[in-house]
Amino acid sequence: MPVVSVKRDSLFRELGKEYTEEEFDQLCFDYGIELDDVEEEEGEVIYKIDIPANRYDLLCLEGLARALNVFNGNEKLPVFKTVAPADPGPTRITVHKETQQIRPFVVSAVLRGLNLTEESYRSCLDLQDQLHRNLCRRRTLVAIGTHDLDNIEGPFTYEALAPEDIRFVHLFETKEMNAREILDDFRVNPERRALKPYTDIIYDSPVYPVIYDKNRQVVSLPPIINGSVSKMSKDTKNMFIECTATDMTKAKIVLNTIVAMFARYCDTPECVETVDVVYNEPVLPGGSTEPISNMTCPDLSTRAADADVARVQSTIGAEVPAQDMRQLVERMQLGPATLNDDETVLTVTVPVTRSDILHEVDIAEDIAIAYGYNNIVKTVPVSHRPGKELPVNLLSDLLRYEISRQGYMECMTLGLCSLDENFKYLNREDPGNLAVTLANPKTIEFQCVRTSLLPGVVKTLGENMSLKISEGIRLFEVSDVVLRDPRTPGEKDIGCRNERHLAALHAGLASSFETIHGLVDRIMQVLSVVPAKEYCPEAHDSSLVQTLISDGASIGEYKLVSRDEDRMFFPGRGATIMWKPHDATEYTELGSFGVLHVEVLQNFSIPFPCTVLEMTIEPFVRE
């Protein structure tokens, strides 16, 4: 959350009341913000206040004081007005089409007749810094420039030129430099380290954005630095504000926030002069279907937003009367508010300072704050819905415990892989209708959702070849794979299904078919699946197995059959695991295990023998 530092005495003067620290802390809590810390700097008590990240109107003393005064009922939200200049020419901005290569948008406004003090001037600069760090994403989305309009002359042009062609004296310099030299200086000069991170935004671009006035004086080199010719001070009477951006929506929010906070200091309070922005070539803002060729900004008009009264009451958990809601939203700067005839829909007025109001739940949140969280009575839900672990997860955890007791280490691999890893590297053909593929993968390693756990487990071994293998390496994973599968009627047709698999790997110079075979037998034993008579007559006819079958403790039987057709395994060293419940006549395939083929080992850069196992555990899940 952003932290705003304000002088205590200045804040209390704006609030018209002296608070104790405990009283002010409670006021902050009631409004949904937090007094984080209290410090003393140069004899002044400084309050550090945590602000919600989407409340840009609270990022300065002026906005914070206004919000708390409205909340306390000591002030009405002002009505912001725009006025067109008698002659719009001197402040017009013409945008050249080359700017579309780097920062295509610009919005602007003028504040006339300012009466700033040193404190309010510093507050203006601090607000710009806060916006740059938060909404502007460190100037990548929006960069703010404020200028003394009396020192420059319009109309202005917003252009994009080669850095060597842009020459001016910037704010912190007395000699003229070109734009490339300025950025190089900021990147190496320790006195300019605060601006160094921003140089990366445009440094490698063939053109840099620049704003010129009528006399070809550089007003700004966004998003880096302003020209010294338009330097601001507390004595500035007429402020020219420009915001260049890659996101038009964010630019408008930033501009509206600045003028709404500081128009109070104009000779005509809350009055903002508009600026015409003319594009030589129409541009298409993000989220819009209509290109713009010219615009007048800022737009300080309010907008209406509706909230269903019943849903608001349900959301906050309190039966707040509809008429009370009207008063509560006005305390949160969302007034005036109205109700429809049957008082089921509340319509609020959203000012330009409340860009955080996007949905009726935002209105419900403000109503809850104004109503008072401590006034919301705790209630016990009418329904009791205990949760429990899914059966498939319970079985997975039990198998993880058992396999780890056999000396295997669990690994957790990615659900996405390349098509080659999923099929070609395992010497398997891609049927084209088995794997769910990504339409537009950003990298070749994430082309499809895995249909097998083996690529991830084997790749994990290949990426950890520095491990000692004298006693062998044992890895396993129990997780989901995704298979394309037309659903049966009545089920949601998404064209695929998840299936829980178990995979294990044993690698080392002594790795053999028998090693992984022993793990298969142990897994079947703990799953209460006994050997079939045709597979192992001695084990099947033993008194222990017969007792398990007669007592109903065994859920089925299994057998192994040769898997010579699978090119993933070394010839004659692969087997298919078949199983069936005791009351069934046909066996179904669970999975397979065996010794990996030399070609598979080479594909994953593994220089020693490996045996692997993969099987589904879905048939053993008990509800």
TrEMBL record:
Q: Does the keyword Nucleus apply?
A: no
- Give the molecular function GO annotations: ATP binding; magnesium ion binding; phenylalanine-tRNA ligase activity; RNA binding
In terms of InterPro entries, this protein maps to: aa-tRNA-synth_II/BPL/LPL (IPR045864), B3/B4_tRNA-bd (IPR005146), DNA-bd_dom_put_sf (IPR009061), Phe-tRNA-ligase_IIc_bsu (IPR045060), Phe-tRNA-synth_IIc_bsu_arc_euk (IPR004531), Phe-tRNA_synthase-like_B3/B4 (IPR020825), PheRS_beta_core (IPR041616), PhetRS_B1 (IPR040659)
Cofactors named for this entry:
Mg(2+)
The protein's UniProt keywords, in alphabetical order, are: Aminoacyl-tRNA synthetase, ATP-binding, Cytoplasm, Ligase, Magnesium, Metal-binding, Nucleotide-binding, Protein biosynthesis
GO terms under biological process: phenylalanyl-tRNA aminoacylation
Residue ranges constituting the B5 domain according to the UniProt record: 300-378
Q: Which Gene Ontology terms of cellular component type are present?
A: phenylalanine-tRNA ligase complex
Q: What is its main location?
A: cytoplasm
Q: Which domain of life is it from?
A: Eukaryota
Where in or outside the cell it occurs: the entry states: Cytoplasm
Enzyme Commission code(s) on record: 6.1.1.20
Primary enzyme class: ligase
- Show the stretches that span the lipid bilayer: none
Q: Which family does it belong to?
A: Belongs to the phenylalanyl-tRNA synthetase beta subunit family. Type 2 subfamily.
Name-wise, this protein is: phenylalanine--tRNA ligase
Species annotation: Hondaea fermentalgiana
